């Protein structure tokens, strides 16, 4: 469900709750991918809400650029502060291994959320949605929109983005099913999460493939840029767009039909669960092995399961669908 | 006869770069069009030109700065800040007239440029350092004022988005704005005292001082102008992409500098022509537009782009050396 | 009182403890050409810069037309009708001639503020024609030779309609012909009522244009004389404070075996088919009009430029010239024409400037030995008689002549066999000139071969064993010391067209 | 020869005021201030282990600062270093992962690739003097990272041999290995700049390239060496960064060039060339490093840190000129 919380301005700094449990003296840290991104903002907000709820102290950090180098520095600083747990939305699955292992050997509980680190560098991962599911629903949506026939393309972020590549991999798996045999994926373009590059990539797609009937863009910058190009060119209803987008960025385009519907999860909830997983690890309620269970505040009970990469994870649920009916409400939240 | 060769020499001196660039642009265009005939379609060309408009506007300001032997690395951050402030204002008052929005952006830009001017002129900080510092500071400020949020199309007024989308006589507003600014800058640089003083200061600051030009005043104004252009470009950017983000135009300063240098603006100061800068912007614009079109692997794009810039500047050197050699050989020795 | 347009009383200027001007007084009458002379470092340029507002004086008053004035900056000076041509050409290399002339008073339409290019180009062309120069006003300043740039500077000063015009060594870079033109211009200016301060080290200048002369020595005012009241010898005594009997030292060296043979050296656009030989102990002069390509020939021999054709034999071995480093290793040294830019690192100390070309002499496997460096630099600096507080003084604080001496010291350090000197006495006072001539002769006696570029005929005739005249990049004639007369040399240097034009 | 008329023997007078007003002393003061500040704001700072181990966060970048001092001393600039780091690291990863070369060989290849990148920059800059070094390195910046992308595509390389981790994470006694290596490298570069012919010639070129040419200095050779050295040190930085991250990818070390330039300039090296000292740049490395670390320990948002560092750079370089109204440039007398 919706937390109803408005994102609060103070992204950073510590805030302490008034709880009295054993966790109250503990410090829980979360590291987002980078600053200045509303998605990360919402995610860390959820984390802070959870920590406040159970009465701990939270630290929110993020490097100014989405790089592993910046995250390593931050983790080192957190180790020096002897925090109880570190949750991280990683910029590189493998690059954080040495530093996270150092953290774990210093007795700090380490978990990843949103974008996983490799199993060796974490105790558990909080997964927003099953990547297989994400791949599937997007191809299914595209199929429905373009009537299962014709050409479509994918507009991704950078060519090095791990989660993008995983989703694209599962999209291709899904496409092998017979119902999509008349659909053809003509190109994977990379807009590097830059509005200008995403725009010219979209324009190039339209130029190079005049018969193009759809675009899947599993990235918030890409989908917004593509939507802008399609609506500027008056292609609503001719070229369909779907993917993963932020409701507040996409509300206009969903209403105008350029993007009939799209998906995302609730980043606030990811942060929120991450907060509770941190607590559970620190309290010793769970150790991160399969079958462990814990309660995540208002979201209820969760179980640790096996993750696709061989580690363990806590799965939030299926991706959430945004369409004309619910976009108004969500656009106000994030 | 003597006069003829002399004039030809001047033509080569003044226009060789432009001719070379034009040939290079034509070569690249034709090569691209062979791979993808859609390149020369009206739609693509007009997309490309409007995508290049903002770059070409910034290049004017950068050229003026570089003529004074300076450089401005902060422009992308100034763009982000002015774009963000304007977008936030628009978000708060949807009814705000687009004209006013442009003015707000301009004001933010002028302010940003003014602060840099103070450091460069009053405190004699090398431009590359002052602007490197404020590149960080303005970027940080952008994140702070936006509280790390974005302003999306949903929060913008239609009028605001029409700034970049609208057309006059079938020509995109951005292109019109760019053309107006080029005309204005052309007059300013070539037909006003102040314009020539900018060249003088860049060519030899010492003698400018000795001959009574207020070099501080010139330098101060130059960075303010650059700020104004960046402020304006920030608003246009946000309007065009309907999204104001903290990382707007990150790293864009390098494209602008590259456009200037391709256009023959010497980093040592003193020389630079608007026609060259326009062609330089156009070449970069074409590369940005063409690489996705010719379907090279995305992994190859940036290597190709870097290599083409290098080839362009190196071939210009060969071209220039050849011209020089020919002029020498024509001398009656 | 007097009919003076400009009076200076008790002018003092101190640079970080050093007095460059010590209570100097000076009168400039209306419509006179007033020569200002003195040794290098006497304070002439500083004096000028104080008058034009480049420097602020530390004491003294400036009285203009009977009124005491304050000149705070060059703009003020311009307003008071004072224009200056500085010793070191101050131009805008990237701008056109027209702009260089008019930059500080660009003509604009009074209504729109639009620059009137056509009008200015025409005016510039007029001015230049007036100065009997053929330069196209639309050429870039950087494309002009030093002499041509000098002419532009003069045009610039005239264009402001100043009534006081100051020229700081305007003839230093000019040949005789060009100097003649300048004299004519100076006369014209005087006749039109302007007053002129004319700084020069050349006595011909003094005789030809000046009405009166003021001498400065060691930052102090020595005296003012009418041009006919003082003989050259007396002038020298006043300037130097001692007597110098001869202009040129007696020749002691004898020519020995050949050291350099250049055959058919060609560089497209600069010179072609140049053949020269230099023997040990011999001084060979390259002369000709400015712009004839003498500098380029020397630079090619030194390895700054690469020749297109031709052969160079050094000590009877054919050599390939690669770069200055290899040339110096072979034993060829070069004293460049522009000491401020090519010769010295201006903000470095004398010591570092002297040693920079031969650091390996003061180092042990690449590690510097400051003690060795210092003692050698001190030895050389005093050998050529550099006037400075210490070898730690920056080159920037030296006067032109002393700067030149530092470069000579730099050459003496390197272990050379052939020394190429490009205008070695340009802008140097009599005393220092004589010292440099002595050094040259001494070097020749030690067996060095010397190739000297010079535009000053007396110097060429007085010093050289052989004279090679360059015209338009080609050797036009070669004279031995005995055969050479000023007329013959000049004729050989004159452009062919000019000769033809005269006949028409 | 003329006789000795005036003996030039006056020694440079020693002035305490001048000595202590040198930029480097101000930097030392700033460094002490930063440490006091850090200790005051965070209880975690004054822990010798923390202080020492914090150096691993910024020292890999600092390896590039050393040769960058030379580049800027020449009055030039190299903005391709970040991309060179990425390319050499990526090539190392590929050789180790794909071609299964021994780790030591991969390390050598990494260094060689770095040096080659630098050599390429140097050759173009020397051969085509007409092109400003900033432009040459601007295009190779795009190109090198592009080549890294071509090589490794969207993958990341790594899984290096266990000992490789020691570079960034290991200790010699209680001192981080990287700190020891950096100290050695800093001393070598400092001596090279201040105590050798080579260094003196670099100063000469930076002060007046034309006069240096006429003095027989082999400018091309020196530039080539310096750019190659810069590339090589980028390779060294790539080793330590890869060790820190345990993996390589094409987008690593972004922004390293501007960081390095900022530290060099903060260290008092004049961006126009010819003036400054190695020690200044080294102190600047630690000032910025410790300041960032301290602000991180109080969990200051990286956005505010961005503003602080930006202002620090602009203001500190402005500082010596604020009092002087004439606007004369600060002059640090070089060794
Ligand atoms: N900017 C300066 N700083 C310190 N000392 C200076 C400066 N300018 C000139 N001086 C000193 O002042 C004295 C006078 O120099 P000035 O240039 O006026 O001599 P000059 O008579 O013009 O010599 P020359 O004939 O060589 O041009 C010299 O001793 C010189 O070293
Ligand atoms: N016909 C020509 N047209 C244009 N430029 C010329 C011509 N001939 C020579 N020049 C240029 O004019 C410049 C003259 O330079 P400079 O005065 O140094 O000549 P120089 O004879 O070597 O001088 P000096 O003997 O006085 O040192 C040269 O750089 C040359 O490139
Ligand atoms: Mg003088
Ligand atoms: Mg010459």
UniProtKB/TrEMBL annotation, chain B:
Q: How does it sit in the membrane?
A: Multi-pass membrane protein
Recorded hits in PANTHER family, A to Z, give: ABC TRANSPORTER PERMEASE PROTEIN YPHD-RELATED-RELATED, RIBOSE IMPORT PERMEASE PROTEIN RBSC
Q: Which CDD domains match?
A: TM_PBP1_transp_AraH_like
Main localization of the protein described in the UniProt heading: membrane
Q: Zinc-finger: present as a keyword of the record? A: no
Do you know which Pfam families this protein is assigned to? BPD_transp_2
Q: What is this protein called?
A: Branched-chain amino acid transport system / permease component
A Gene Ontology cellular component where this protein is annotated is:
plasma membrane
> Which UniProt keyword terms apply here?
Cell membrane, Membrane, Transmembrane, Transmembrane helix
Question: Which Gene Ontology MF annotations are present?
Answer: transmembrane transporter activity
**Any idea where this protein resides?**
Cell membrane
**Which residue ranges traverse the bilayer?**
15-32, 53-76, 96-121, 128-148, 168-189, 218-237, 249-267, 274-294, 300-319
From TrEMBL, chain C:
Membrane topology, as annotated? Peripheral membrane protein
Q: What is its main location?
A: membrane
Task: State whether keyword Transmembrane helix applies.
Answer: no
Going by the UniProt record, its keywords in alphabetical order are:
ATP-binding, Cell membrane, Hydrolase, Membrane, Nucleotide-binding, Repeat, Sugar transport, Translocase, Transport
Q: Where in the cell is it found?
A: Cell membrane
PROSITE patterns under this entry? ABC_TRANSPORTER_1 (PS00211), ABC_TRANSPORTER_2 (PS50893)
CDD domains associated with the record: ABC_Carb_Monos_I, ABC_Carb_Monos_II
Q: Tell whether Repeat is among the UniProt keywords.
A: yes
Per the record, its GO cellular-component terms are: plasma membrane
ABC transporter domain mapped to chain residues: 6-243, 254-497
Under Enzyme Commission nomenclature, its number is 3.6.1.3, 3.6.3.17
Q: Which GO terms describe its molecular function?
A: ATP binding; ATP hydrolysis activity
The protein's matches in InterPro entries, at most eight in alphabetical order, are given as: AAA+_ATPase, ABC_carbohydrate_import_ATPase, ABC_transporter-like_ATP-bd, ABC_transporter-like_CS, P-loop_NTPase
Question: Please, which domain of life does this record's source organism belong to?
Answer: Bacteria
Among PANTHER family, the record links this protein to: CARBOHYDRATE TRANSPORT ATP-BINDING PROTEIN MG119-RELATED, D-ALLOSE IMPORT ATP-BINDING PROTEIN ALSA-RELATED
What name does this protein carry? ABC transporter
Species source reads Acididesulfobacillus acetoxydans
UniProtKB/TrEMBL annotation, chain D:
One CC-aspect GO term:
plasma membrane
**Membrane-topology descriptor:** Multi-pass membrane protein
Q: Which residues form the signal peptide?
A: none
Which molecular function GO terms apply here?
transmembrane transporter activity
Q: Does the keyword Membrane apply?
A: yes
Q: Which domain of life is it from?
A: Bacteria
Q: Which UniProt keywords apply?
A: Cell inner membrane, Cell membrane, Membrane, Transmembrane, Transmembrane helix, Transport
Transmembrane domains' residue ranges? 21-45, 79-96, 102-124, 172-193, 224-241, 253-272, 279-298, 304-322
Q: Which CDD domains match?
A: TM_PBP1_transp_AraH_like
Q: Where in the cell is it found?
A: Cell membrane
Under the heading Pfam families, the entry gives: BPD_transp_2 (PF02653)
Name of protein: Autoinducer 2 import system permease protein LsrD
User: What's the source species for this entry?
Assistant: Acididesulfobacillus acetoxydans
């Amino acid at each position: 469900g919706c937390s109803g919380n408005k994102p609060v301005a103070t992204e950073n700094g510590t805030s302490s709750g008034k709880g009295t449990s054993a966790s109250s003296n503990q410090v829980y840290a979360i590291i987002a991918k980078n600053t200045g991104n509303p998605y990360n903002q919402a995610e860390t907000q959820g984390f802070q809400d959870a920590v406040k709820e159970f009465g701990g102290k939270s630290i929110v950090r993020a490097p100014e650029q989405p790089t592993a180098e910046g995250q390593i520095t931050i983790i080192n600083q957190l180790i020096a502060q002897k925090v109880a747990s570190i949750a991280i939305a990683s910029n590189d699955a493998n690059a954080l291994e040495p530093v996270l292992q150092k953290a774990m050997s210093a007795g700090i509980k380490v978990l990843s959320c949103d974008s996983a680190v490799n199993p060796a560098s974490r105790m558990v991962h909080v997964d927003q949605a099953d990547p297989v599911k994400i791949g599937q629903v997007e191809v299914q949506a595209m199929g429905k929109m373009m009537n299962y026939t014709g050409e479509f393309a994918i507009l991704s972020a950078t060519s090095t983005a791990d989660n993008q590549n995983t989703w694209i991999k599962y999209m291709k798996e899904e496409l092998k099913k017979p119902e999509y045999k008349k659909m053809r994926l003509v190109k994977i373009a990379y807009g590097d999460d830059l509005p200008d590059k995403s725009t010219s990539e979209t324009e190039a797609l339209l130029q190079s493939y005049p018969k193009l009937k759809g675009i899947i863009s599993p990235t918030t910058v890409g989908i917004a840029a593509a939507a802008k190009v399609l609506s500027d060119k008056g292609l609503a209803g001719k070229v369909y767009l779907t993917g993963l987008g932020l409701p507040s960025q996409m509300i206009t385009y969903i209403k105008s039909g350029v993007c009939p519907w799209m998906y995302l999860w609730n980043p606030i909830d990811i942060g929120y669960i991450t907060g509770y997983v941190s607590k559970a690890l620190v309290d010793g309620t769970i150790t991160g092995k399969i079958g462990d269970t814990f309660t995540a505040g208002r979201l209820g009970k969760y179980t640790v399961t096996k993750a696709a990469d061989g580690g363990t994870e806590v799965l939030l649920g299926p991706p959430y669908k945004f369409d004309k009916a619910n976009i108004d409400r969500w656009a106000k939240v994030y | 006869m003597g006069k003829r060769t002399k004039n030809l020499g001047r033509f080569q001196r003044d226009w060789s770069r432009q001719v070379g660039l034009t040939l290079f642009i034509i070569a690249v265009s034709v090569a691209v069009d062979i791979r993808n005939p859609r390149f020369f379609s009206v739609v693509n060309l007009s997309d490309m030109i409007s995508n290049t408009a903002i770059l070409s506007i910034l290049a004017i300001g950068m050229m003026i700065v570089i003529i004074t032997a300076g450089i401005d690395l902060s422009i992308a951050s100034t763009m982000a800040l002015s774009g963000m402030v304007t977008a936030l204002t628009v978000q708060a008052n949807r009814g705000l007239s687009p004209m006013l929005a442009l003015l707000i952006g301009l004001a933010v830009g002028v302010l940003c440029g003014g602060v840099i001017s103070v450091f460069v002129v009053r405190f004699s900080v090398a431009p590359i350092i002052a602007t490197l510092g404020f590149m960080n500071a303005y970027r940080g400020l952008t994140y702070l004022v936006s509280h790390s949020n974005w302003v999306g199309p949903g929060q913008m007024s239609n009028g605001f988005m029409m700034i970049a989308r609208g057309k006059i006589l079938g020509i995109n507003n951005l292109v019109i704005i760019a053309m107006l600014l080029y005309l204005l800058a052309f007059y300013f640089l070539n037909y006003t005292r102040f314009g020539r003083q900018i060249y003088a200061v860049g060519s030899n600051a010492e003698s400018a001082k000795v001959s009574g030009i207020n070099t501080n005043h010139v330098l101060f104004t130059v960075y303010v102008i650059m700020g104004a252009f960046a402020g304006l470009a920030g608003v246009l950017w946000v309007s065009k992409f309907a999204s104001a983000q903290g990382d707007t135009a990150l790293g864009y300063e390098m494209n602008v500098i590259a456009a200037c240098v391709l256009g023959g603006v010497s980093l040592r100061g003193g020389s630079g022509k608007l026609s060259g800068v326009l062609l330089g912007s156009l070449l970069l614009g074409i590369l940005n537009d063409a690489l996705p079109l010719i379907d090279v692997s995305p992994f190859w794009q940036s290597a190709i782009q870097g290599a083409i810039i290098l080839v362009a500047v190196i071939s210009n050197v060969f071209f220039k050396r050849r011209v020089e050699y020919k002029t020498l050989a024509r001398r009656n020795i | 009182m007097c009919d003076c347009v400009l009076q200076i009383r008790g002018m003092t200027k101190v640079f970080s403890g050093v007095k460059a001007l010590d209570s100097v007084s000076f009168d400039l009458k209306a419509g006179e050409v007033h020569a200002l002379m003195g040794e290098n470092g006497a304070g002439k340029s500083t004096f000028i810069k104080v008058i034009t507002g480049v420097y602020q004086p530390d004491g003294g008053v400036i009285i203009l037309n009977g009124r005491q004035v304050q000149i705070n900056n060059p703009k003020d000076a311009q307003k008071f009708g004072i224009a200056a041509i500085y010793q070191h050409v101050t131009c805008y290399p990237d701008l056109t001639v027209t702009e260089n002339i008019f930059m500080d008073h660009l003509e604009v339409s009074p209504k729109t503020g639009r620059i009137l290019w056509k009008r200015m180009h025409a005016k510039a062309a007029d001015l230049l024609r007036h100065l009997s120069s053929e330069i196209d006003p639309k050429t870039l300043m950087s494309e002009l030779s030093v002499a041509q740039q000098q002419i532009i500077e003069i045009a610039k000063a005239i264009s402001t309609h100043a009534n006081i015009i100051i020229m700081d060594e305007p003839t230093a870079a000019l040949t005789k012909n060009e100097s003649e033109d300048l004299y004519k211009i100076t006369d014209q200016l005087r006749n039109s009522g302007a007053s002129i301060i004319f700084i020069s080290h050349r006595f011909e200048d003094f005789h030809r244009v000046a009405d009166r002369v003021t001498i400065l020595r060691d930052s102090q005012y020595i005296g003012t004389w009418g041009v006919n009241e003082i003989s050259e010898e007396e002038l020298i005594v006043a300037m130097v404070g001692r007597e110098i009997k001869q202009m040129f030292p007696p020749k002691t060296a004898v020519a020995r075996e050949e050291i350099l043979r250049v055959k058919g050296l060609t560089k497209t656009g600069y010179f072609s088919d140049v053949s020269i030989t230099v023997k040990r102990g011999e001084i060979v002069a390259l002369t000709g009009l400015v712009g004839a390509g003498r500098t380029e020939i020397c630079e090619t021999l030194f390895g700054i430029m690469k020749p297109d054709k031709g052969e160079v034999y050094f000590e009877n071995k054919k050599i390939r010239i690669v770069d200055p480093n290899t040339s110096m290793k072979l034993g060829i040294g070069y004293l460049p024409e522009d000491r401020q830019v090519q010769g010295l690192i201006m903000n470095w100390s004398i010591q570092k400037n002297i040693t920079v070309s031969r650091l390996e002499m003061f180092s042990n496997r690449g590690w510097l030995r400051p003690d060795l460096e210092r003692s050698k630099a001190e030895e050389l600096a005093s050998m050529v008689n550099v006037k400075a507080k210490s070898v730690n003084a920056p080159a920037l604080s030296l006067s032109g002549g002393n700067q030149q001496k530092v470069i000579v010291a730099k050459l003496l350090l390197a272990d050379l066999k052939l020394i190429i000197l490009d205008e070695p006495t340009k802008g140097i006072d009599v005393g220092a000139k004589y010292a440099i001539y002595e050094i040259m002769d001494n070097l020749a006696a030690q067996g060095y071969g010397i190739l000297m570029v010079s535009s000053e005929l007396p110097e060429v005739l007085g010093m050289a064993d052989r004279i090679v005249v360059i015209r338009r990049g080609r050797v036009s004639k070669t004279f031995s010391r005995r055969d050479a007369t000023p007329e013959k040399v000049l004729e050989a240097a004159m452009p062919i067209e000019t000769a033809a034009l005269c006949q028409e | 020869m003329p006789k000795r008329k005036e003996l030039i023997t006056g020694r440079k007078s020693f002035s305490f005021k001048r000595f202590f007003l040198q930029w480097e002393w101000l930097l030392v003061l700033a460094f002490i201030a930063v440490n006091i500040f850090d200790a005051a704001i965070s209880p975690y700072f004054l822990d010798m282990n923390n202080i020492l181990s914090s150096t691993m966060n910024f020292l890999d970048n600092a390896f590039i600062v050393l040769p960058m001092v030379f580049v800027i001393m020449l009055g030039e600039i190299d903005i391709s270093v970040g991309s060179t780091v990425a390319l050499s690291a990526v090539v190392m990863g590929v050789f180790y992962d794909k071609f299964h070369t021994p780790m030591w060989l991969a390390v050598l290849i990494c260094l060689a690739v770095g040096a080659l990148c630098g050599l390429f920059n140097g050759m173009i800059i020397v051969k085509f003097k007409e092109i400003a070094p900033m432009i040459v390195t601007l295009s190779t910046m795009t190109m090198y990272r592009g080549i890294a992308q071509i090589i490794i595509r969207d993958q990341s390389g790594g899984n290096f041999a266990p000992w490789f981790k020691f570079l960034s994470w290991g200790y010699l006694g209680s001192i981080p290995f990287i700190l020891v290596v950096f100290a050695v490298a800093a001393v070598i570069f400092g001596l090279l700049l201040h105590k050798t012919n080579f260094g003196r010639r670099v100063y000469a070129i930076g002060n007046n390239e034309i006069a240096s040419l006429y003095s027989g200095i082999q400018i091309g050779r020196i530039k080539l060496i310096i750019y190659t050295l810069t590339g090589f040190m980028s390779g060294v930085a790539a080793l330590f960064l890869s060790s820190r991250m345990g993996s390589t990818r094409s987008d690593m070390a972004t922004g390293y060039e501007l960081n390095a330039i900022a530290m060099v300039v903060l260290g008092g090296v004049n961006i126009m060339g010819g003036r400054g000292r190695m020690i200044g740049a080294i102190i600047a490395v630690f000032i910025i490093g410790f300041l960032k670390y301290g602000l991180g320990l109080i969990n200051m948002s990286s956005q505010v840190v961005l503003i602080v560092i930006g202002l620090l750079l602009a203001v500190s370089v402005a500082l010596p000129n604020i009092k002087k109204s004439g606007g004369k440039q600060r002059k640090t007398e070089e060794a």
